[in-house]
């Protein structure tokens, strides 16, 4: 018992015996330990040499090498470039403009390259002066509420923290924005201002493109003044007229392993067959549509509610986030382009960049078929930009049609007016242009090189992950309208989604998607009151917000006032989520449900009219309750009218003048108490 005793008990052994036992124990232990150490040392000595002899060991780190190139400066030196055009692009337009500017450079005896700031270390800007006649141009789009685009986020963070000396850097900035948004061209303005603060030399004034007006014309106008300023600064002259320079060469594959051909994947080959997280823009998740129902009871429009199954995807989202979906073009449009150009759409080909040093090896995933490219990779429904018309003009056999195309692509006032009326306002896409110009029959490979990429479409998520962790809900309206030429144009994504009928097995109901995080968030404290304003499909994020507040209430949390201002055309036609909202209101989760039916009476009633009607209650919630305000929907009219209404309410009840009221609301925005999720 004493030998097996607990550690805290004294063993019942006399002192002499105890010492003897310890001596014996130590000598045995010593022998054992020496033998063990000798054995381990021998093993290590014999086998370590084999590991050192493995020839691939030094190469192991290269497997996990970062995506970024070591330096854009070294690349420019190696390839003889002196102009770098960085782009911050969310929908591809800024990237397109950057490519056009870099191609322009050759006309002035200069060489340009377009560059994604995400792929380089921008602190190297301080070294650009090492290159003769060097210039950095920035085509920067503003996303959301004054935010940088995803690919420019790191650059933006660096600019904010940088204390670099950029005194040797020459630069110019063209911003892409939309005047209907509160923070028009915030990113372009910030980059222009910050580079100057860091000592860089602006060689041409900031350009501000407005997508609510005519972004293409804004860019052309800026560009035609930008290049003369570059010439003057560097003492160079234009070498001649614009010329058509192919960026890619066509390779037709007659004998190809079909397992190596892209069929619509955005990044990794076969990624749709072998799905691996994490899922993002280059690796979307194929979500099954489990529900697709029409929300409205009447009217000409089709409003729909879709549910996407994200089980086993490890995708996480929060209320207020956006879901991005990659749509496909209408097969009838694709077939018509193939017929007009007399092309076998199922031919397997690659378009390979003629510039071997370029990071962009192909304009879209290759090898692939023309059918796949026109269906999944290229934008065939938006009116083409002027550079596309310029490049296509050479293929028009009729002199009149060729002249018309060149005129629309020119910077002359008459040409700009013709482009605006014949292409933009008439909403002529590439198919319509080919139909209306019978002599224009370009090679399909050059057309595929020129057309912009088909972009993902973003939708405000209409569900809460607390209630629906394995599903994402979408609320959308199908876009369909008649053009001035009498054609019926259909929105790519909404009509594609409309046809996603749930079925048990089959690819017809699969949607490639990923999540884009948003700043549109419920208050941290559930007890904080919220005022939500969202007419039409602008109700989407608020369905998620209300679901989440209901869930919090069920968890025993104290939930503040939840107030909704919703609007639609007719109560009996397009009152979306009527039953759900009525139930939430009845249960007390939705403390106020205010609905404006704009066309059910002689005078139109909108959400801002209901806000004015309840102005005293609004002011009390904002001023005393520290309520958070959320606005979702149309930016051009609704969001602006709602904001003006808040200015009026604040001025009246806060006893302020108009400038002070405006400042009050702007401060709410700065504090994250007035949030917008709007589109134009």
Automatic annotation (TrEMBL):
<dbReference type="InterPro" id="IPR001709">
    <property type="entry name" value="Flavoprot_Pyr_Nucl_cyt_Rdtase"/>
</dbReference>
<feature type="domain" description="Flavodoxin-like">
    <location>
        <begin position="83"/>
        <end position="227"/>
    </location>
</feature>
<dbReference type="GO" id="GO:0005829">
    <property type="term" value="C:cytosol"/>
</dbReference>
<dbReference type="GO" id="GO:0050660">
    <property type="term" value="F:flavin adenine dinucleotide binding"/>
</dbReference>
<dbReference type="InterPro" id="IPR017927">
    <property type="entry name" value="FAD-bd_FR_type"/>
</dbReference>
<dbReference type="InterPro" id="IPR001433">
    <property type="entry name" value="OxRdtase_FAD/NAD-bd"/>
</dbReference>
<keyword id="KW-0812">Transmembrane</keyword>
<dbReference type="InterPro" id="IPR039261">
    <property type="entry name" value="FNR_nucleotide-bd"/>
</dbReference>
<keyword id="KW-0256">Endoplasmic reticulum</keyword>
<dbReference type="Pfam" id="PF00667">
    <property type="entry name" value="FAD_binding_1"/>
</dbReference>
<keyword id="KW-0274">FAD</keyword>
<dbReference type="GO" id="GO:0009725">
    <property type="term" value="P:response to hormone"/>
</dbReference>
<feature type="domain" description="FAD-binding FR-type">
    <location>
        <begin position="282"/>
        <end position="523"/>
    </location>
</feature>
<keyword id="KW-0560">Oxidoreductase</keyword>
<dbReference type="InterPro" id="IPR017938">
    <property type="entry name" value="Riboflavin_synthase-like_b-brl"/>
</dbReference>
<dbReference type="Pfam" id="PF00258">
    <property type="entry name" value="Flavodoxin_1"/>
</dbReference>
<dbReference type="InterPro" id="IPR023208">
    <property type="entry name" value="P450R"/>
</dbReference>
<dbReference type="GO" id="GO:0010181">
    <property type="term" value="F:FMN binding"/>
</dbReference>
<feature type="transmembrane region" description="Helical">
    <location>
        <begin position="25"/>
        <end position="46"/>
    </location>
</feature>
<keyword id="KW-0288">FMN</keyword>
<dbReference type="InterPro" id="IPR029039">
    <property type="entry name" value="Flavoprotein-like_sf"/>
</dbReference>
<keyword id="KW-1133">Transmembrane helix</keyword>
<dbReference type="InterPro" id="IPR023173">
    <property type="entry name" value="NADPH_Cyt_P450_Rdtase_alpha"/>
</dbReference>
<dbReference type="InterPro" id="IPR003097">
    <property type="entry name" value="CysJ-like_FAD-binding"/>
</dbReference>
<dbReference type="GO" id="GO:0003958">
    <property type="term" value="F:NADPH-hemoprotein reductase activity"/>
</dbReference>
<keyword id="KW-0521">NADP</keyword>
<dbReference type="Pfam" id="PF00175">
    <property type="entry name" value="NAD_binding_1"/>
</dbReference>
<protein>
    <recommendedName>
        <fullName>NADPH--hemoprotein reductase</fullName>
        <ecNumber>1.6.2.4</ecNumber>
    </recommendedName>
</protein>
<keyword id="KW-0285">Flavoprotein</keyword>
<keyword id="KW-0472">Membrane</keyword>
<dbReference type="InterPro" id="IPR001094">
    <property type="entry name" value="Flavdoxin-like"/>
</dbReference>
<dbReference type="InterPro" id="IPR008254">
    <property type="entry name" value="Flavodoxin/NO_synth"/>
</dbReference>
